Amino acid sequence: MIIIGIAGGTGSGKTTVVRKIVESLPENSVAVIPQDSYYNDQSDLPLEVRKLTNFDHPDAFEWRLLAHQIEELKSGRSIEQPTYSYITCTRLQETVHVEPKDVIIVEGIMTLYDKSLREQMDLKIFVDAEPDERLLRVIQRDMAERGHPLEMLIGKYRNILKPMHDEFIEPTKQFADIIIPNGGNNERAIAMMKLYILSALKEQQFRASLNISNQ
């Protein structure tokens, strides 16, 4: 099994990179764990308080649960991945059953922030993009998919997204083994990731066969 962490700012192209890596690997060989599923359960708080949640701050995540569930998958045990609602700003009762796969991808803005999580990763990737490009992608996405007005999105970028990115997300680039500029548009970098992953899987399978033959 290979654990891959893919981090990067909002609108950097992480989701596209993940999708292209998954599409390039054998079917049913990859499990994607979104960091967004591990926002704190806030069901004990009033909705008015929950709506004030800063989703771009490290304190918004339940790091211990995320690290524990990745450890479970790495040990060959299935997990019940939590689900989160941005409408109610808290965790839902429904969970997603995830079985161990050859490749586990943990994807999110701060995937490389937590040390205990990083230490479980075999490959750490930071998806990079220019701030102006990220802002344009966020505006296009949130206006089309969530109906947010332009003025609100610009204010959100200035007051939350940019300062949180500069303080907590950008510094995690130092932990990355590979930095992919231009996000999902970097076809060459994604092709290199595919070759690396396939090679690492073959090496693990070879070592496992040697261990079996030596027993």
Helix count from the secondary structure assignment: 7
Mean pLDDT score, rounded? 89
- So what's the overall shape? globular
Widest sheet: strand ordering: 2-5-1-6-7
Detail the poorly predicted runs.
none
Distance, first to last CA: 21 Å
Structure description:
The protein is of the alpha/beta class and 215 residues long. It contains seven helices and seven strands. The chain has helices at 14-24, 47-50, 63-74, 115-118, 131-145, 150-169, 187-214; strands at residues 2-7, 30-34, 79-85, 90-98, 103-107, 123-127, 178-180. It has a five-stranded parallel sheet with strand order 2-5-1-6-7, sandwiched between helices. The radius of gyration is 18 Å and the shape is globular. The model has no long low-confidence stretch (mean pLDDT 89).
Topology:
Layout: E1 2-7, H1 14-24, E2 30-34, H2 47-50, H3 63-74, E3 79-85, E4 90-98, E5 103-107, H4 115-118, E6 123-127, H5 131-145, H6 150-169, E7 178-180, H7 187-214
Parallel strand pairs: 1-5, 1-6, 2-5, 6-7
Antiparallel strand pairs: 3-4
